[in-house]
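Late entry, written up from scratch paper. The run itself happened at the end of the previous shift, but nothing got recorded in the book at the time, so transcribing now.
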Amino acid sequence: MKQELHYSMKTIPIRDLSTTSLVTYDLKDSSAISFAAWKALLILTGTTILILSLHTSLSPAIPVIADEFGVDQTLAAWVVR
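Output as recorded:
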């Protein structure tokens, strides 16, 4: 018994690039983004912003951290990152 996969593609004509199109979504559609997905996106985005801000604020302190722990600045930079 031979199984076949069938793919269908919808061809959309490409118009002038200066035109814009309006895309609407049906909120009752099952392919809509779920609340859990939005929640995960919010948590991941918030965590990323927090980590980046901490790294930015600790970068000027690397020489002081290296002096306090008695290591060179390269090692202190690796530990902070």
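The helical segments are 35-58, 62-69, 73-80.
(Scratch paper discarded after transcription.)
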